[in-house]
Amino acid sequence: MALTVKAKPFTFVSHVLGVIAAVMVLVWCIHFRGGLAFSSSNKNLIFNIHPVLMLIGFIILGGEAIISYKALPWRKEVKKKIHLVLHAVALVLGIIGIYAAFKFHNESGIANLYSLHSWIGIGVICLYGIQWIFGFVVFFYPGGSSTVRADSVPWHALFGMFVYVLALCTAALGFLEKLTFLENAGIDKYGSEAFLVNFTAIVTVLYGTFVILSAVSPHEAVDDFSYAAI
Questions:
Q1: What is the pLDDT of residues 98-109, one digit of tens each?
Q2: The CATH number of the domain where 194 resides is what?
Q3: Under a CB-based contact definition with an 8 Å cutoff, are residues 217 and 7 in contact?
Q4: What is the DSSP letter of 32?
C-alpha cells in the first residue's frame, strides 16, 4: 500500500531529533567525558572526537543529505547540489572520526579492528564512499546518458538506504560497546551518564527512522526527481 502521508511532517521531526541527538552527544563527550582534543595526554579526549563526528558529521549530515529533496523548497538542481555536498561533508567527517578512533587506539596501546562495531563501521564508510563516487560520476560529472541515469536512480536510492541503515546499526553498536566498557570500568549502570548514552542511541535510531520515512514518503509537490548531468 502506498504511503499517503506527505514527507514534510517527517522531515520536521527528523530535524528536531537531529538537533536533540547532536546536543546529547556533545553533553556526553564534553560534560561527562572531559572534552575533545586531537592531541592530549588524556587519550580519552582523542576518542571523544569519534562519537561526535560519527553522529553529527556522518549520521545526521548524511540523513539531512538524504531528505534534502523532500525538506528544501528550492529547484531540483539546487537541491541536487546540496545533496551532493552534504554527503561529501558527511563522508569527510566520518573518515576523520574513524581516524580519531585509530589514533586513540594506537596511542593507548589498544588493538584495532577487533570488534563487530569496527568491522561493520569500516565496511559502511567504504560503501558510503563508493555510493558517493557512483552518484558523482553518473549524475554530476561526466554524467551518464539519460537512460543510464534513469535506470540508476532507483538502485542508487535503494543502495543509499541500505548503507544508511547499516550506519545506524553501527552507531547503535558503538554506543553499546563504549557504554559496556565504561560500566566495566566502574561507572554506575543506572547513573545519569549511562542513561544519557542509552537515550542518545535511541534518539539516533529514531532520527534515522524518520529520515527513512521522509525518503519513502511522497513529496508535497509533483516532481519527478530525475537526474541530469551538470
A1: 999 999 999 999
A2: 1.20.120.1770
A3: yes
A4: I
